[in-house]
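Here we describe the complex-level prediction in full. Unlike the single-chain runs in Section 2.1, the two entities below were treated as one system.
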Amino acid sequence: MTLDDLVAALRNAHDSGTQLRIRGAGSKDFYGGMLAGEVLDVAAYAGIVAYEPTELYITAKCGTPLAEIEVALADKGQMLAFEPPRFSGATVGGCVAAGLSGPRRQQAGAVRDFMLGVKLVDGAGQMLEFGGQVMKNVAGYDISRLLAGSLGTLGVLAEVTLKVLPLPVAEQTLVFDMNESEAVKRLNQWGGQPLPISASFWHDGRLWLRLSGAKAAVAEAIGKLGGTVAVDAEKHWNSVREQTHQAFADPVLWRLALPSGAPSPGLDGLRAIEWGGALRWYAGESGEIHDAVRGAAARLGGHAVLYRASESLRCREGVFVPLPPAMLALHRRLKKAFDPRGILNPGRLYAEF
Amino acid sequence: MTMPDPTFNTDRAALVARLKTVLPAHCLLVDAEDLRPYECDGLTAYRALPLAVCLPESEGQVVDVLRTCHQLGVPVVARGAGTGLSGGAMPHAQGVVLSMARFNRILRVDRNARLAVVQPGVRNLAVSEAAAPLGLYYAPDPSSQIACTLGGNVAENSGGVHCLKYGLTVHNVLRIRVVSIEGEVFEFGSEAPDSPGYDLLALLIGSEGMLGVVTEVTVKLVPKPELAQVVMASFDDVGKAGDAVAKIIAAGIIPAGLEMMDKPATAAVEPYVKAGYDLEAAAILLCESDGTPEEVAEEIARVTEVLKAAGAGDIRVSQSEPERLRFWAGRKAAFPAVGRITPDYYCMDGTIPRKRVAEMLGAIVDMEKKYALRCANVFHAGDGNLHPLIMYDAAKPGEWERAEAFGAEILELSVALGGSITGEHGVGIEKINQMCVQYTTPELETFHRVKAAFDEHGLLNPGKAVPSLHRCAEYGRMHVHHGEIKFPELERF
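The structure predicted for the assembly as a whole is:
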């Protein structure tokens, strides 16, 4: 598959008004709204285009498996610091389009924070380049970051350039026994101190805390924080990142993004807490509790995503918080700016576009 | 220098009469002598007198002013402290300046949540000062941080000397409140991560006042490191200094700051600040490490080893906080120091891949001969962001035009080397022609459609940031004859 093939596919779809469902490995088919349109399989547009360790970037075609990228990076002692889930064969294009970040997000930042540039094929089949391979670039609007998390509704992310970072010199994990409220309190207290905390995960009365950085910094933090040094920590963090940990096993799963210090939202079914308290997972029901979950998150200044549920439930309830009218109108205008005929992943982000 | 814009033809009397109905007298300036201080920003070569300056004190007044201008079809240029270097806040001769200077309150500093909620007219440094008692600070630190405001930082996506490790404004802002040209109030982002919908927070940051007017900013605060130390290394060759930068990064080190200055820059700075720079060196590198004392010691040892292997001559490590600040003082004072040795200077802002540094500096030496002007270079080496300071005398006929052509050539070479025309100062009015070089027509059209999604009639900061296709067509034609045409900035054809 070539870039010309992609451009031609999009141009044809635009001209004929054919709706497309952009698909890489399909590892996140479960995520977002309805899956509609003819499948545009972009997995074959794959391969690392450029990787320059000393320039701290990697450019890859959208179908490149994350695993392949991570092997190349690890070989030079580097990583995708936002630790995206790889699930089963996830591609880099899908990773950016979904905008999901992993455990290290609380320290390093989200997918969008590492977006440097993109080659985009828009809904009219135009090949556009925004951003680049340099760390700083404020020429024109920051379209590359806008695309992170847009779920393919604005174009096919044919090639992406991501900032990469060195692997930490040292990494250790501490384990503490504590309840939910104590965990949130401690995580926020620690967050205000210069400690090298790179990930946190609370589940069922137990808190895992990962420390990453210079050897001296990690050793010093262990002395300061106490707890028990975990064995098999890498396996544990991998299960959090890939969501193979039992905390994520429920068939209906809510993802609540909250201000990190928010108290308990008073919902049943807390499964896990990540990101220093800013991400909380709840097992859900298929009944009529969705307004209650959304309302509880909103009251605390956050929002709830119906992260995993049957397609019918997702379509009925909507996955993301409904947008207020003026915001929805703005989204529609932006959507139209990139996809004038509304052919790309219709309904995947919001049912309205 | 102003550019006539035939698109707008404002009835000044009607505008002022309407503004008087929404603003009290002390919030509205209309007399020529009161408007004069607003005629330019930090890029003083471009000036225009606005029809009026509005100084609202509440978000409600901002809404009213924008609604009024929207109804009357009048251009609006938002302004913070006016320290920008690309003319982004240069007024429109047919429009109003919306100064956010009176939005100067820090509304909340939250220790537990590690954030501050501030109004857009609050100075960058004031945020860190307010957070200092809690052991926290706001990381982005543009050189103008004692004066520049958060609203302006959001508009330009400002960086600073520490952004390689701590990020730009876009990485450190959690939420903004924005008023659209139609007077609609939006909130983009929140204190919680991953806001629903498109990442409009990221889109607005760095949008140069083209999409909306910011009325409130929530910023992330980070714990102040216990210790910071700077390694200062001298090189007898700029290429070696550039290679040393790449080698530090290849060694897996992301320093808190990594800056380079060439010989003309240190020569300008040293008599002014007495930072102790090696005046014989072709280039010096300043590399900062921060963290706990143990962490810093570990990193400094590694950095020193890399620098030695890269061929550094003299290597010095700051032994005290005053010494660290003295090492930095020279870098931070580079612009005013150059301003002392030349009547005027023109600061460029291109970014290039780090490995092309030596090539770029070599080309600049050739350009100095070509344009018969001197140039000093300071460089955010860690992120490949170059600030050549082209020295000229505006009083001498032809020098400004040569300086401008010199700058344009640097920017276009930045693009050719795989970089960008601006790393942190913005396009504004200054680099509007070079946008035609960096982007294709369909890309520029996309920018225009994004703009129209927020501001259908193009009333917010017209003529800035994204050139019209018409303008690019003209620039393209003139570009062929580059260097032969006088006053390339004037509208022709």
